[in-house]
Amino acid sequence: MKTKLKRYFKELLYFVVAMTIFANVISLYKSQDLSDNPLEIRSVELLRHELYGIARDKPVLVHFWATWCPTCKLEASNIEFLSQRFEVLTIAVNSGTDEEIQKYLSSHDYSYKVVNDNQGRLASRFKIGAYPTTFIYDKNKKLVFSDVGYSSTFSMYLKMIWAGYK
To answer: What band does 143 get if pLDDT is binned at 50, 70 and 90?
Structure first.
């Protein structure tokens, strides 16, 4: 019995490692076309028409997502966790009105900062081709990391530390 469990655990471990490698290869491939320009956004209008200024002296995570994206839904709790600890700005693309996005956030108890990019203009500017897409900029707003697809909380947390977040 123990040998069987050991074998199943080993197979599961191999599967997780293989899927992680596969996901990272796909992310690397899809992120090649993304904009690698420094972050030029200094302030944005959030839902509820609040003006929000991006911190000048801290790294920032910019996350593009959509309410209709299944992978974004899986990753949303990771973004919520990170937004409680770091400078995080999220951009909801083609996801409806401010009220529809706010309803989605409220129904899941998410409180992260959201810009409604209902026309996809910001997504186009950043050359987004798939969702979710995450950019991490250092304190000088130079791009340090970009990921396409699901990213774990742990991975993004480490990348924010690497980017210089104190």
So the answer is: very high
Question: Average pLDDT over the chain, rounded to whole?
Answer: 87
The structural domain count of the chain equals 1
Is the C-alpha dihedral spanning 26, 32, 35, 36 positive or negative?
Answer: positive
The pTM of this model reads: 0.81
Q: What is the CATH number of the domain that holds 45?
A: 3.40.30.10
Side chain identity, residue 75: E
Under DSSP, the state recorded for 85 is T
Q: DSSP per residue over 116-162, as a string? A: EETT-HHHHHTT--SSSEEEEE-TT--EEEEEES---HHHHHHHHHH
The answer to whether position 18 is within a domain reads: no
